[in-house]
């Protein structure tokens, strides 16, 4: 029954409409991508990628369709014309039934099949755009591999391209053989079961030629496979082993010759009828592959190598050591034997004490709730769970500084206008020196509040581009509808509004562009809203890592971007790596596995992909302007051949290192993920002797984080002076410790100068194997035991809990000093929950100090006066001075009373009363300070009284917001 004319027309119309909608969304995606790249000034990157991918797609699709389609056409053209039942009577066989079903639709099936095959092949080839660009733009390394004497660039750029081409041709020939055989079968070219002739001459010639081409490709593959043996896993270490060099490489050459002979025999079968030649060649190929390619290398490995593996593999282990250290950038790592004293004389300790700067007591993974409570200002602002460590000059001295930006969070009233037009940006930068803690255990901020104080100079405080920015925002125009900051710095109930005046974002003033973005985000309000005007811009791709990844797709980015104030702007600094898995002889390991530690497991920094790598360089430093989103890429390792290859491919998108301003240079640092990779490698490859490496007795590993079992301890930034360093001043340094495999005692201390002006050579202090030095886990156990009574006092009636901060290790007095801050916070999940510093734990050898300040703890370990860290401390009492003045005594009594009342309220769980008591305590301490200043200015100074230290350190202040605690014990 035929459908009426109108319903029959609806089907093609509906198909056409669906096709138009699909094409619109494809066009919207591509065109809006181009608009975004144009807005950041990197259209050359977009066009290079797009043209390359389209070229590879078309090339792959057309070649595959031509090869496969051509062979199917040949099979169809040479079909026999004898009709049904050619081989065995007139009965209709299975192939005849297939032909009867397929033949009426053969053109549709043929074209549709080739289109689908072309789409899959083209998509696969387009995904190889990096391999193509590396091959076309390859830069020599100037180093040769020890086996073939070829430049490393051959293995990095040319060999992967050869393998890609061979894989494509193998796929095309195999599919051609299968589909040509099917066509021959369906159209009577041969029968699988037949008493007489099995195949026509045309079918035999065609299929023999195809198999001959396959075997010819196999000969080429055998020949090129020998170069791939520099990536072999057969031996003791990665790279070509004794068996590979002395058995497999000759075997590959022999197999290539045999494959050429077999290919010739298959081609001979084209002109000589019969199946003997193809059968002989196929048998010869299989037999030689088994005997020469498998059995012979196995016999060499079993009877020559294994009985004498150490001597046989020595040369190849050496090759692996040299290549690995070079590829991971640790060839210049310096190993120094370090005695690691556990005791020192007073003179030694006193001379060393002056080299310790203000050790960072603020743990950036712990104090985020403290920053948020004290500096959040309003509930719609937020801080990241992991703060960052940078260095700034405070009072003329460079200090480790914990920093963060105040980003916008979810609006209190969720709707499209609030989400995308009003709450568009964060506001402000917050910074506190890591060693400066106020009297209540809180950070001593040098930049804070709204509007921000200018402790680090004036700067643009608005954060339109950040790690937690909304997916997209519509900004700009004459009408000020964007929330800028709360009125009166958060004290008032109103707000100040603004409108964006930066150059970032894509203009959406015309209807067509708004239509495209409405399609991109599936949001009709982008078309209908009257608040979007001719000056409006849409901001998206706002995360700093995402922006850099878009404009530099050839880079892998560090997991921890950090903000810095540079020339009056807040810039996000992102480290970029060039990586490869194709450096000959270099050890391959998973990038994600090497960089995984406590910070990535807690998602405090971005986890890395688990791709295998064996070459890495910190080749690019990138910045993203927090206000206008400007992305700048700077070449950091200008001698990296891989970076120079990408620079040739993408033109001038990467600026020279000389363009980095001195102000930016002050904030560049050695990146964490690179250091994590290098410490993982140096756990084995600090051993450079082949025999010692074979034994493996001196291998190390990264210790477990004492605060979180089963995960590796992260490295820490800290300012310190390395023993034997050329500089007499402490330096901003990235550090880690290492322990022996299967043991917890300390094996080595590893550090690298993290400042931009350093030569970035890793230094390793190797501890004596005959002396047991506690590792981080053992040091933490000692702290837990010796500080148990003090920590229990801080856990007031079970209402509070303690949190261990980062366990820092630093060289001191010829040994190693452990420093750990301990924080306290209420247990109850309420507004009074955030950590404040309560105690500082110090350990040198077997001596442990527990103080309310770092100086107190150091004095307990080294003796009175040895713990001077350069921090502001109260001078000691002077004997023989007059009595305390009455107003001082009165202030002390008031402070003690307020403290006692606060403790009672805390035990009762009355946090309102506790907050009031804390306010009275703060006022009493201010009165005390005034009274002391007045007394000091008088004719006779009295001794400086010290209030109960517990009032300053043992309890948290009153009004925090709830937050998870990283590590707690109660």
UniProtKB/TrEMBL annotation:
InterPro entries: UPF0182. It is found in: Cell membrane. Residues 862-885, 930-970 are annotated as: Disordered. The keyword Cytoplasm does not apply. Keywords: Cell membrane, Membrane, Transmembrane, Transmembrane helix. Residues 957-970 have a biased composition (Pro residues). One of its GO terms (cellular component) is extracellular region. Belongs to the UPF0182 family. This is UPF0182 protein Sru01_59200. It comes from Sphaerisporangium rufum.
